[in-house]
Amino acid sequence: MQTELSTTLGVEHAVFGFTPFPAVAAAISRAGGFGVLGAVRYTAPDDLARDLDWIDAHVGGRPYGLDVVMPARKVEGVSEADVEAMIPPGHRQFVQDTLAKYGVPDLPAGEAAGWRITGWMEQVARAQLDVAFGHPIRLLANALGSPPPDVVARAHDRGVLVAALAGSARHARKHKDAGIDIVVAQGYEAGGHTGEIASMVLTPEVVEEVHPLPVLAAGGIGSGEQVCAALSLGAQGVWLGSMWLTTTEADLHSPALTRKLLAATSSDTVRSRALTGKPARQLRTEWTDAWDGADSPGPLPMPLQGLLVAEAVSRIQRYEVEPLLGTPVGQIVGRMTAERSVQEVFDDLTRGFERAVDRINRIAGRSDR
Amino acid sequence: MQTELSTTLGVEHAVFGFTPFPAVAAAISRAGGFGVLGAVRYTAPDDLARDLDWIDAHVGGRPYGLDVVMPARKVEGVSEADVEAMIPPGHRQFVQDTLAKYGVPDLPAGEAAGWRITGWMEQVARAQLDVAFGHPIRLLANALGSPPPDVVARAHDRGVLVAALAGSARHARKHKDAGIDIVVAQGYEAGGHTGEIASMVLTPEVVEEVHPLPVLAAGGIGSGEQVCAALSLGAQGVWLGSMWLTTTEADLHSPALTRKLLAATSSDTVRSRALTGKPARQLRTEWTDAWDGADSPGPLPMPLQGLLVAEAVSRIQRYEVEPLLGTPVGQIVGRMTAERSVQEVFDDLTRGFERAVDRINRIAGRSDR
């Protein structure tokens, strides 16, 4: 699975793996792919520095990257407290009522909410970048629009390629105009923030729109046959996120969540604004159902919703309250039916890819070549 | 583009084209694909007989099929008038108010609503079948679940293959259990009635679920690269519907609608219950927006909604009231940017398919073979 982009980056397979877990990121790169560590959960730059040091020691000299969540537009002089003050009391009450209904205990005294998507606040993301540029990252991805121009310039000065996610051709064009190097076309079926356009339609539209920039296809990819499909659509590689959640190297800290992921079918996700305020695909749970229900006050816009639910999500996770327990994940969750190592996932991807290429050649009447 | 199924049916390309227009169906089969005429708009069996006669005279001896909309469960002794009586007056008022807001004129005296999805009523569909089995159809497709067992048996007695649409693996399994021969996996991005699962995920799930039955991939396919992707996912062919709407052989009877289709992007469709009561992807219009709006009484269940809006849709179409004018169409509408003949669409599909196969072989390191 060699494309121009995988050759440029010096990796064996044009398979990019996004993950919040350093051990998974390192294993992806060691297996011949390109591991990308998600930084959004790191509140303290020191924690990120520690984990990047760990990756450097365990990646075997292979290239890897970092994914941040950085808004293109800066909001000056607004603190987290200012944003918290914008949350209506009725919304806070709905959260507390829903938690009470399921008997979700409080966090132990002195334990802060661990789940906070504060990485998307620009000052946090910039502190992460200061750390990251001190490590040998080869790629910087941004999940929330194009990064600011000075960040793109700083990356380019260091020979770091910049990638950005797009859910439409129009969105992708903005990335190209902002000097981005790689566009990740994120289809409707993908986990996390997604648009309405499915990968089958979106990938070739983005490829055509940003030509000659390389495009990675994201959304719905978890087998070698799906890799072959995505590359048929013109992508120079694939971007997988969900698949790694149930690998043995992943560290979900929740046997109940792992069980739910392994049991879920492709019909068990929902695109909901309940987690961050923007539509994000995730496991459908009684928590997302509550936000979609008749009594719901409706999710708040980003970043208010993320702040509103941060403590609740931490409590649900800490006590593994099964009916409410969820995570961002794509429709490919239906294929995640057993825990496997990252290497096993890669072996399966490469075997499936070869099978698909054989089959396509037979259909094209080239099997005798 | 030769698969086991295309060989069985004796067609050159594993491309199945669904269309309401006899001239398009015949042109698809003449171009080496497999044309499937949609019967749902035929209220009178004689009209269907006339159009099938026309196809027989113009298809050049190539095989073709028929698509009906037949409920698996029979509702005994219920007339169209009984069903009409179940529509709440508030819903009728909403339709009239919305039409009045846009100044949509009444139909001329004596002119009946031409647009009626009455084909889904079982007695109508059965009358269609009596006609169809008198013609050399090779395939009978049903868009609404498995056809009743006696219909499947009748088709098999005549050597007619039976296909049914499915939006999930569970749904596809029911078709297999009902003795269906071919499953059409209809992805989220498809036009008309669709589920939530996108083609990239749905196709391989259905292939695995109904193995060894052949699967056709539907949804998001309009280029040879997309054909290659769908076949990579294990499909034995592709099922295209939207693409033919803007061919020169199509007969939309509405220059305004053709203009809207040619101008629409992949972001300009919506999955709405406004047309039939079940979620169906269609052009997003001020009509679908009205049904999604705050004042909307909400669409009624099938078949009530279809009966409720039948006259309104006819009036909107007859007077080409542009803001309200729509049609079922998939996200692939973004690729429909110029009127072309059916043959030109096929030439484009086959060229794109060969390009994609070349590219995949290069990526797989087989370009030297």
From TrEMBL, chains A, B:
GO molecular function, one term: monooxygenase activity
Keywords of the record: Flavoprotein, FMN, Monooxygenase, Oxidoreductase
SUPFAM superfamilies xrefs: Inosine monophosphate dehydrogenase (IMPDH)
Pfam families referenced in this protein's UniProt entry, alphabetically: NMO (PF03060)
Taxonomic superkingdom: Bacteria
InterPro entries according to UniProt: Aldolase_TIM, NMO
Cited CDD domains: NPD_like
Keyword Electron transport: no
Protein's name according to its UniProt entry: Nitronate monooxygenase family protein
